[in-house]
Write a structure and sequence with these properties.
single chain; 4 helices; 3-stranded antiparallel β-sheet; 188 residues; Rossmann fold; alpha/beta; 23% helix; 6-stranded mixed β-sheet
Length: 188
């Protein structure tokens, strides 16, 4: 890994496990969307690595677009306020939409995004998430494709970040809480 050992408490999902699971998800999605007009909507910024690997594994045609949604900012806890910015570049009317998320915990972001996407009159809207954290779920949301269920801990890597750091880790790791707490300066 490229970070100090003290930054990462524990690797909970290895690069090899991720690679194998992404391939399984792609096979399942390809089978389910055979002969359909599939549009993948990636939720920026955390899903970009997962989405890139997933779409390269799909053996069916698909379109790709992104939305920017956030409820964390630079914190390890959701603010509870979901911000969705930007506009879609692909028409969704009559097409099957698959939202690609990095992690679903409270469910607020994905619920708000589904409502927004449904205003574009797609044939269907489904959700694929790399990680699901059911212990924090506040909203009922159907997750059609789940990479891994994880415990209630703050994770980084494979696109997921803390304050824009750690996205480049090839695995999913629990962030050491000391990293997330600002350290006092020497003169304070």
């Amino acid at each position: 890994m490229s970070y100090c050992d003290e930054d990462i408490l524990e690797v909970i999902i290895t690069q090899q496990q991720i690679t194998a699971r992404v391939a399984e998800l792609a096979r399942q999605i390809a089978a389910d969307y055979q002969d359909k007009q599939l549009v993948l909507i990636g939720v920026l910024t955390g899903s970009f690595v997962f989405m890139a690997d997933l779409m390269r594994q799909l053996e069916i045609p698909c379109e790709v677009d992104f939305v920017d949604a956030s409820s964390y900012g630079d914190s390890t806890v959701s603010t509870g306020e979901v911000r969705i910015t930007g506009d879609l570049n692909v028409s969704l009317t009559g097409k099957d939409v698959l939202v690609v998320e990095d992690i679903v915990d409270s469910g607020r972001t994905v619920c708000k995004l589904i409502r927004l996407l449904q205003t574009h009159q797609p044939a269907s809207v489904s959700v694929c998430t790399l990680l699901s954290k059911t212990a924090r779920r506040e909203r009922t949301v159907e997750l059609n494709y789940i990479g891994f269920e994880i415990p209630d801990c703050f994770v980084v890597g494979y696109g997921l970040d803390y304050a824009q750091r750690f996205r480049n880790l090839p695995c999913i790791a629990v962030l050491n809480e000391d990293v997330a707490v600002p350290k006092p300066r020497a003169n304070e």
